[in-house]
Amino acid sequence: MRIGGLPRPITIFHASVASLLPITTRFRFVTVAEKAAKSANVSKLGDLLVDAAIAKTLSKPGGIHELDKKGDAIPLSEELVLRMLRRGSLDSSRKLEFFRWCSNRQNYKHSACTYSQVFKVLCFLTHHHHDDILELVATMRRDGVALDSITLKMILDGFIRAGKYDSALEVLDYVERELIGSSCFSPDVYSPVLVALMRKNQISIALSILLKLVDSALLSANSENVVIPDAIACNEVLVGLKKADMRDEFRQVYSNLRKTKLYPMDIWGYNLCIHALGCWGELSSVLGLFKEMKERNGPFEPDLCTYNSLIHVLCLLGKVKDALIVWEELKASSGHEPDEFTYRIMIQGCAKSYRINDALRIFSEMQYNGIRAGTVVYNSLLDGLMKSRKLMEACNLFEKMVDDDGVRTSCWTYNILIDGLYKNGREEAAYSLFCDLKRKGNGFVDGITYSIVILHLCRENWVEEALQLVEEMEGRGFIVDLVTITSLVIALYRRGQWDSIERLLRHIRDGNLVPSLIKWKSAMEASMSSPQSKKRDYTPMFPSISDVAKVLHLTSPDGEGAEDAKQFSDEADEWSSSPYMDSLANQFASESSRGPPPFSLLRGVRVLAKGEDSFDVDMVNTYLSIFLAKGKLSLACKLFEILTNMRVNPNSYTYNSIMSSFVKKGYFKEAWGVLHAMGEAVTPSDIATYNVVIQGLGKMGRADLAKAVLDKLNNEGGYLDIVMYNTLINALGKAGRFGEAVELFQQMKSGGINPDVFTYNTLIEVHSKAGLLKEAYNFLKMMLDAGCAPNHVTDTCLDFLEKEIERRRYDKASILRSETEDLC
């Protein structure tokens, strides 16, 4: 500091202090390191000043043009670009402008680090910059800069979060050659790619990528270079395959992933595979996965979703009795509480298998626990009650559903009511309800409602009214499907009204269905009229089998199942949270060679035409029903032969229809041949197959085998519906086995199924013809007390019963008169 231009004098105090210091401290030498540090500080200060100047320029409107003017003065480097991209005071658009400005400089080229940093900036706002990201990816590839796995994963994750699946797939196209099969990429790279493909419904592309990765993993000897996507991506692919019903592809992916032993299967994956494989009938695989979950323990311990899937699978495959035991086990010892889905699954399974008492008990427990029942639960209960001939209980439940609980009804609810009223002999009430719902609008009726009413009108021979409903159905915009057409065409053929068929076809709204029917009919008639070789005509279509017991495999001893149950009961772990499930898993693990389940609760779906070129099994079944309704068995068999020659696989309805016609004609050996062919081609069987078999055995007088078939049905998880009970009671009664028939009658009532008019008519008839008039009269009294309305068959049975009573009285009177004359 200077005072008046002269140096400030040093005071005596300062001089004295300086003289006291050592001489080494008075003269300071600067080292090389200190010079470098000082230079670095100066350089850092310069960098800060440059960064601030660039940021200030970019923040101004048109700032990028100011940079053009000072372009040569700015010392561009990778460090400078990275610092600007990491600067928090600049928004993403300004950083992108600066990055592009740097790209146009002649003496500068971006590196992988700068590209990675700019992608990191843009991926946080992918929905704004997805086009910019794609452009930069293309520029990066053109400049020959490699895209590393971390940056690629960041880009793909950003696109997926923003829902830009097309952009994610476009990035995949850019790097496909470098990505697929490259060992330098992390497995995490493929996961978002597969997720994006599945959510874009590109199942085939995702499947091919995953199979390539899995196959390379199976062939690779070095496990360190194996690339397998994470569990989320693999589960996403499996979910897509399940929804698309791609069974073979699902099993291929599942088995290959398991073979690699690197598949990071989580509890979601276990539950997914249990549900999918169970729906496709692979019970042994399902129970094997459950057993594996119990062995791994920890985070893989079965949860409520696992139990829900297991109970659903058991109900689906007809093992409702086992499902009820697992249900009780779930509540008692698993540590989980049933939720809404658990109750719904159990009620649906019990209602479908005619265990209506169990379904009502579970429904009461559901309400007691405070869980609100939805429309699906009420529909299942209504359907079960209607099919069990519990009409009053069904009507009371419907009132509770609407008035007390306020549950919203659906078209399906009203379809159940209308169909149930028809089947319970309340035709007028059903048609009146249908007319009331029509007046309320399309929200209360649909195409299935019309189809139900048309079917019952055709059965009652009200064909003209059915045709009017078809016209009305088409006017409301509903599709006339093959089920409706089949019902009408059969009725028209029976009455010989050929002209009405053309009227029917004019009122079909589906544009593809009419030409399909006409073309299919002409092709079928041409095929059936074409000449066949005589050698082939004399070749039987089905083998002639006299012993049906061999076809049904009724030779196994009765005590085998009980011994197996006792063995598994002894092996169960009493400390396990699921001892019964453990025993089931051990049982099916020891029987891993068994095939698909022989019985299923799956129902058929309504069929539609598949196009003009279709020669499918649904169309065959339509015309097969027509021929069989007219009694033209030879034409039906020839149509079946055409079907098999064209390699179209028949389904259970096809086999059941032909077998039923053979039984009605008395061709039992041929019927068992059809059953044998069905066992080789179609699994599992349904309840209609067993009904036909027992009907045939009853006509043959083999009631002993009918009882064995019943035992086989129960062992395979089947159930007895009211038609099956009536068929069995008729077969046993006509064979003179009245005790067993009455026992089945009592079992039917205790199981929650109310006997209908056919049940009582059968019991009255067989007891009357056997001379057991008192028992026949008792069944008549039971029928009237139950409120079951008689029909014309009942009148015939009563006429026969009255004649038998009169004959008995006459015989007694004749005997008494004869004895009196002898005494005289």
Protein architecture, described:
By secondary structure, this protein is an all-alpha fold. Helices cover 70% and strands 0% of the residues. It contains 45 helices and 2 strands. It has a two-stranded antiparallel ribbon with strand order 1-2. A hairpin with a 2-residue loop joins strand 1 (2-3) and strand 2 (6-7). It is elongated and about 160 Å long. Residues 1-29, 180-184, 533-538, 555-570 and 604-615 have low confidence and may be disordered.
The geometry reads as elongated
N- and C-termini, Cα separation: 173 Å
- Numbering strands along the chain, what is their spatial order in the largest sheet? 1-2
Count every helix, treating DSSP H or I runs of 4 or more residues as helices.
45
Structural class: mainly alpha
**Low-pLDDT regions:** 1-29, 180-184, 533-538, 555-570, 604-615
Strand proportion: under 5%
Q: Can you give the helix content as a percent range?
A: 55-70%
As a whole number of angstroms, the C-alpha radius of gyration is 40 Å
Mean pLDDT: 76
- List how many beta strands DSSP finds: 2
The main sheet comes to: 2 strands, antiparallel
Question: Keywords for this structure?
Answer:
about 70% helix; 45 helices; TPR-like_helical_dom_sf; repeat; about 800 residues; disordered N terminus; two-stranded antiparallel ribbon; mainly alpha
Give the secondary structure arrangement, pairings included:
Blueprint: E1 2-3, E2 6-7, H1 12-20, H2 23-26, H3 32-59, H4 63-69, H5 78-85, H6 92-103, H7 112-123, H8 126-142, H9 149-161, H10 165-174, H11 176-179, H12 190-199, H13 203-219, H14 231-243, H15 247-260, H16 267-279, H17 283-296, H18 304-316, H19 320-333, H20 340-352, H21 356-368, H22 375-387, H23 391-404, H24 411-423, H25 427-440, H26 447-459, H27 463-475, H28 482-495, H29 499-506, H30 513-529, H31 534-537, H32 548-552, H33 560-571, H34 579-590, H35 617-629, H36 633-645, H37 652-665, H38 668-681, H39 687-700, H40 703-715, H41 722-734, H42 738-750, H43 757-769, H44 773-785, H45 792-823
Antiparallel strand pairs: 1-2
Helix pairs in contact: 3-4, 5-7, 7-8, 7-9, 8-9, 8-10, 9-10, 9-12, 10-12, 12-13, 12-14, 13-14, 13-15, 14-16, 16-17, 16-18, 17-18, 17-34, 18-19, 18-20, 20-21, 20-22, 21-22, 22-23, 22-24, 24-25, 24-26, 26-27, 26-28, 28-35, 33-34, 35-36, 35-37, 36-37, 37-38, 37-39, 38-39, 39-40, 39-41, 41-42, ...
